[in-house]
Write a structure and sequence with these properties.
The active site is at 657, 700. It catalyses: Hydrolysis of proteins in presence of ATP. It holds the Pfam family AAA_32. Residues 206-247 form a coiled coil. Residues 567-762 form the Lon proteolytic domain. The protein is α/β, with parallel strands linked by helices and 791 residues long. The protein contains 28 helices and 30 strands. The strands form 10 sheets. Strands 23-24-22-21-26-29-30 form a 7-stranded mixed β-sheet, with helices on both faces. Strands 8-13-16-1-17 form a 5-stranded parallel β-sheet. The chain starts with 39 loop residues before the first helix and ends with a helix.
Length: 791
C-alpha cells in the first residue's frame, strides 16, 4: 500500500487562542504578566536559595542569552521581600584608627544614619575649628597664663637676686646671659679686676677669690637645675591649663553627639577615642604647626582635619529596599573596592578617607548579580570572590600588593562582615568547567537555577504567552497588538522552538520582533499592530541577514550549482542540508552520488578521505554500511566497492542527516534503477534502517521548495522527512498552500525502504525464509546482480 503524504494541516499549527475570551480583542484587554513565562523550575530554585541564610547557598543561573534570566530574578526580587522583613541593613563607615593609622576602623550604623553621622562630625569639627582659637584668645586665658608665667619669673628673679647679692658681698660680680650662660668676675671695688690688678694681689687673696668663685659656681649650677625644673613645672601647668580649656571646649561641643549615639556601641567608643585624640592634637586646630596643619587640611572636598573625617562607604538611602546590585564590568576594583591616592604639594599620600566602595560593599545584606564568563575573564576576581564568600568578610586589599612582590606601604582596613547572595549568570559549558576544575564551586554555589529553552504549547500556555506579549507592549509603550497579531507572534515562537507543541522562551527574540513590528506599524501610521505588520517585520529581519542565502540561491539560478528537480538518475539523489551563520540559518539541497566498482563490499567515503567529513558524518556512513551488509551480505561478501560523495561540496560536511539519502543512492547504483530527482530526502537512520529525527527540518523543506521554484515547479515535486519530525513542522504559508493545492508533497517515512519505494516506484520486497527477496522487487534485483558478480 503506497505511503500517503502529509495533509496541509500537519504542516503548521495555527494559534487558535482558545484560552482567551472572545471579548479579548487586543493586548489592551489583557493583564500584563508580572513574571517570566515558563520558568517555574528556575523561579523555585531562586526562591529556595533566597530563603536560606546559611553560607554557600549562592545561585548559578544556567541558560542561553535571551531567556530572560536577569529579568526574572529582578522581577522576583522586586516583588518578593526575601525572608520577609527579617533582614537588617546597615550603613558602613571607615574612620581613623588613632592608635594605628594604617588600619582604619569600621563603624556599623543603623541603615540610613551613616550620612547623618558624617554630617554631625563635620559640624563638630566646624565648631571646634572656631571654638579653639576663641578659647585660647581671650582675657581670661591670657590672665591665667600670665599668672603662671609671673610666678615662674618671680621665683627665678628672687633666686638670682639672692645669689647676686651674696656674691657681691664676697666681691664677686655675677652675670647670666639669655642663653643660660653665666660669668663670675672678681671685683676691685666697683670695677672688675684687670689682669694686672689681680696679679698684684697676694697669693692668699687670689686663692680666696678662686675658692669663692668655685663655691658660687656650685651654687649657680644648683640654681640652674632648679630653674630648669621650674620651667618644666611651668610647662606642665601651662599644658594642664590648655588641656582643661580644651576639655571644656570639646566636652561642651561633643556632649550632644555622645548623648545622640550612646546606644550605638561602635560610635560611642569612636567618640571617646576621638575626644582623647583631639586633646593630644590641639595644635591642628590652633594652626601652630603650619606643615602638619597643611597636610591635615589637604582634603579634596571640605576644609576640616582629615583624621576626623567620616568616610561613608555604604549608605542605605532607602532602608526598606532590599539592595540589589548588577555588576556589568566585574573587575577586581569594581567588586572589592579600592584605595585612592591624593597629591598635595608634590607628595602622594593616602588615608582612610580615600577608601572607595565596590559592588560587594553596596550589595552587602542583599544580592549581587554578575555574568560568570566576565568574572572568570578578569584576573584575580574569581579567587577574591571565593575568599570573601568563604570567610564571610570583605577585606579591602590592594590589588597592586596582590600581584607584586614589592613591600609598598598601603592601608589595611578592618574587614567588614559580609552577608550577600551571589547570582552568576552563565551557560552550561561554563557551569561544567567550574564543576570539574574548581572543587570549591560546589560548596559556594549549591543552588542551580536551570532556565528552560521552551515550554509546552496548549491553551493555557498560549494565554500566558499572550499576557507575556502584553507585558512587553506595556513596558515599552508600544502600540497594542490585535488578536491576529498575537496569534502570529505565538506561531513565530513555536517556529523558533522548532516544535508545533512547544513555545520558545527566548524572550529577547519576541521582544525584538515586537519592537520592530511596532516600528513598522507606526511607520504606516497604524493605530494598532496587525498581523500584516508582524509579517513585514519578519520579512525585514530576514532581509537583513539573508545575503548568504541569496548568494547560494543565485548559484542555482545561473546553473553554477548542478541540481536536477525533474528527471530520473541512477546513483544520484537530492539531499537536504542546513547552512548556518551566527544569526541565520537556511536550507539548501545538495546532490549526493554513489558509484560502484568490483571490490570487497567497502563504502568509500570521499568526504572523509579528503578530510572534509566530520566524525558524525563518518559514523553515519559506517551505520549505513552495516545496514547494507545486514541486507545484502548475510551469506557472502558484497562484491562491490562503493564511492560516495557530496557533489560540489568545498567545505566541511558533518552530521548524519544524509544517511538515508546515501543508502538510496547506493541501492540505486547496485540495482541500476533510476531515482526520481523531483524528490529530496533528509533523515538519519540506525543499523536496522529505521528513520531517526534530524534538526532544521523546516529550513530544509523550504530550501528545496525555493530551488524547485527556481528550476521550474511540477506537481510531483516533494520532500521525504522522518516521521518523528512531523511535530517539528512549522512551514511557510506558501508551502502549506502548495501542499493544499497538490503542487508539492511531503511524506513522513519511518523506514529507509519506504524512501526507496517512493524514489523508484517499485516495491522493496520482503525477505523470504532463505534470505532471498522476490526477483521483481528492488532488493531482489540487487541481490540477483550481486549473486551474478559473486559467480
Amino acid at each position: 500500500m503506497p505511503l500517503a503524504p502529509l495533509s496541509s494541516d500537519k504542516l503548521y499549527r495555527i494559534a487558535a487562542l482558545n484560552g482567551l475570551s472572545d471579548a479579548c480583542k487586543s493586548t489592551k484587554h489583557l493583564t500584563p504578566l508580572d513574571e517570566i513565562v515558563g520558568q517555574e523550575r528556575a523561579q523555585h530554585a531562586v526562591e529556595f536559595a533566597m530563603s536560606i541564610k546559611e553560607k554557600g547557598y549562592n545561585i548559578y543561573a544556567i541558560g542561553r542569552n535571551g531567556l530572560g534570566k536577569r529579568t526574572m530574578v529582578m522581577r522576583y526580587l522586586n516583588r518578593h521581600e526575601p525572608n520577609g522583613n527579617s533582614h537588617v541593613l546597615h550603613d558602613w563607615c571607615y574612620v581613623s584608627n588613632f592608635g594605628d593609622t594604617r588600619c582604619p576602623k569600621v563603624l556599623k550604623l543603623p541603615a540610613g544614619e551613616g550620612c547623618s553621622f558624617k554630617k554631625d562630625i563635620e559640624n563638630l569639627m566646624k565648631r571646634l575649628v572656631k571654638a579653639f582659637p576663641l578659647a585660647f584668645d581671650n582675657e581670661l586665658y591670657y590672665s591665667r597664663a600670665e599668672k603662671l608665667k609671673s610666678e615662674l619669673t618671680s621665683k627665678q628673679e628672687t633666686t638670682l637676686k639672692s645669689l647676686t647679692k651674696s656674691a657681691e658681698e664676697r666681691g664677686i660680680s655675677v652675670s647670666i646671659t639669655t642663653q643660660g650662660d653665666y660669668q663670675l668676675v672678681a671685683m676691685n671695688g666697683k670695677e672688675p679686676h684687670s689682669e694686672d690688678s689681680f696679679a698684684a694681689l697676694s697669693v692668699d687673696d687670689q686663692q680666696t677669690f678662686e675658692n669663692t668663685i668655685n663655691d658660687l659656681e656650685v651654687e649657680l649650677r644648683d640654681i640652674v637645675r632648679k630653674l630648669t625644673e621650674w620651667e618644666e613645672q611651668y610647662s606642665d601647668k601651662q599644658q594642664k591649663l590648655d588641656e582643661n580649656i580644651a576639655k571644656e571646649v570639646v566636652g561642651h561641643c561633643i556632649k550632644d553627639l555622645q548623648l545622640k549615639y550612646k546606644k550605638i556601641a561602635d560610635v560611642k567608643a569612636y567618640l571617646a577615642d576621638m575626644y582623647a585624640d583631639i586633646l593630644d592634637n590641639i595644635d591642628i586646630f590652633l594652626e601652630e604647626n603650619e606643615e602638619q596643619v597643611a597636610l591635615a587640611y589637604a582634603s579634596l572636598d571640605k576644609k576640616m582635619p582629615r583624621r576626623y573625617q567620616v568616610n561613608v562607604l555604604v549608605h542605605q538611602s532607602d532602608i526598606c529596599k532590599f539592595p540589589v546590585e548588577v555588576e556589568e564590568s566585574p573587575s577586581y576594583h569594581s567588586i572589592f573596592g579600592y584605595v585612592e591616592n591624593a597629591t598635595y604639594k608634590g607628595t602622594v599620600f593616602t588615608d582612610f578617607s580615600l577608601i572607595r566602595a565596590g559592588s560587594l560593599h553596596r550589595a552587602n545584606g542583599g544580592v549581587l548579580m554578575m555574568d560568570a564568563v566576565k568574572v572568570l575573564e578578569r584576573p584575580y576576581v574569581w579567587d577574591g570572590l571565593k575568599r570573601a564568600l568563604r570567610a564571610q568578610k570583605l577585606n579591602l586589599s590592594s590589588l597592586e600588593r596582590e600581584v607584586t612582590l614589592s613591600g609598598t606601604i598601603s592601608l589595611e582596613p578592618e574587614a567588614i562582615p559580609l552577608n550577600v547572595k551571589i547570582i552568576l549568570f552563565g551557560d552550561y559549558q561554563t557551569y561544567q568547567l567550574l564543576q570539574h576544575y574548581d572543587p570549591e564551586f560546589k560548596e559556594l554555589f549549591r543552588v542551580t537555577a536551570d532556565f528552560e529553552d521552551d515550554m509546552p504549547r496548549n491553551d493555557d500556555s498560549e494565554e500566558h504567552y499572550a499576557r507575556f506579549i502584553a507585558s512587553i507592549v506595556h513596558d515599552n509603550d508600544m502600540l497594542h497588538c490585535d488578536r491576529k497579531a498575537i496569534a502570529r507572534i505565538i506561531e513565530y515562537s513555536s517556529r523558533q522552538a522548532e516544535d508545533q507543541n512547544k513555545l520558545s522562551l527566548h524572550s529577547a527574540d519576541i521582544a525584538n520582533l515586537l519592537r520592530e513590528t511596532n516600528y513598522v506599524a507606526r511607520a504606516s501610521n497604524a493605530t494598532m499592530i496587525r498581523c500584516s505588520h508582524v509579517e513585514q517585520a519578519m520579512l525585514n529581519q530576514e532581509l537583513r541577514v539573508s545575503r548568504l542565502k541569496d548568494h547560494v540561491m543565485q548559484n542555482f539560478v545561473t546553473g553554477t550549482t548542478l541540481l536536477d528537480v525533474h528527471l530520473h538518475a541512477v546513483g544520484q539523489v537530492n539531499a537536504l542540508s542546513v547552512i548556518a551563520t551566527s544569526d541565520y540559518q537556511f536550507g539548501a539541497p545538495s546532490r549526493i552520488t554513489a558509484t560502484t566498482a568490483y571490490g570487497n563490499g567497502e563504502v568509500f567515503d570521499i568526504e572523509r578521505s579528503a578530510e572534509l567529513g566530520g566524525n558524525i558524518h563518518s559514523k553515519g556512513v559506517m551505520i549505513l554500511s552495516a545496514y547494507l551488509a545486514s541486507v545484502f551480505g548475510k551469506t557472502a561478501k558484497i562484491p562491490l566497492t562503493t564511492h560516495l560523495t557530496f557533489e560540489q561540496s568545498y567545505g566541511g560536511v558533518d552530521g548524519d542527516s544524509a544517511s538515508m539519502a546515501e543508502v538510496c543512492a547506493i541501492v540505486s547504483a547496485f540495482s541500476g534503477l533510476p531515482l526520481r530527482q523531483d524528490i529530496a530526502i533528509t533523515g538519519s537512520m540506525n543499523q536496522f534502517g529505521e528513520a531517526q529525527p534530524i534538526g532544521g527540518v523546516n529550513q530544509k523543506i523550504e530550501g528545496f521548495f525555493d530551488v524547485c521554484g527556481i528550476k521550474g515547479r511540477t506537481p510531483g515535486q516533494g520532500v521525504m522527512i522522518p516521521e518523528s519530525n512531523v511535530h517539528n513542522l512549522m512551514l511557510r504559508k506558501d508551502i502549506v498552500e502548495a501542499v493544499e493545492k497538490g503542487e508539492f508533497t511531503i511524506w513522513a517515512i519511518s523506514h529507509v525502504s519506504q524512501a526507496i519505494e517512493i524514489f523508484t516506484g517499485n516495491a522493496v520486497g520482503v525477505e523470504a525464509e532463505q534470505g532471498f527477496y522476490p526477483s521483481n522487487t528492488v532488493f531482489g534485483l540487487v541481490q540477483s546482480k550481486l549473486n551474478a558478480l559473486r559467480r
